[in-house]
Task: structure prediction
Amino acid sequence: MKNGKWKIIILFFFTNLFALNLPEFFSADFTQKIYSQGKTLTYQGKIYTDSKNVFWKYTYPNEKYIWVKDKVYVYEPDLEQVTISKKTKFNLFDTVKRAKKIKNNVYVAQIDNKKVNFIYDKFLQKAWYIDDVGNKVVIKFKNQSVKKINSSLFNPKYPQDADIIYQN
Result:
């Protein structure tokens, strides 16, 4: 499975998704499943956002930390590696603001010629879409909160001796 592009799409989707309810802060536990060629990959962790920055803390099957700020920082402790890439110019905030309710709590947004569906009932419950290589990506949220998040959480933290890879 190719996962570089879908990660960026997911990161930027959630960076601005919360415009629908406009909370200043959002956090939740998440389970992300990627369905491809009869196989399912499952990831779990926690997401935090202040609607400008995002921090994804993956806890299963491996630890991984992703900060979306001025750039995207991905720290993988098992590899002792940090990948730093440019934040795309694509702005999903406007796309999600224009998302259309298609029934009850189900919404759809058009993003880069792709449909991103989500269920939103007081909080974001679930999001799903087909990525660039044809994988179905489904992310479910639970234990959602809109309580204030300490801004220091959005500052990338990784060991000084980690290998750093820069991507364009």
The chain is about 10% helix and 50% strand. The domain at 4-167 is CATH 2.50.20.10 (outer membrane lipoprotein receptor (LolB), chain A). Confidence is low (pLDDT under 50) at residues 15-19, 89-95. The radius of gyration is 15 Å.
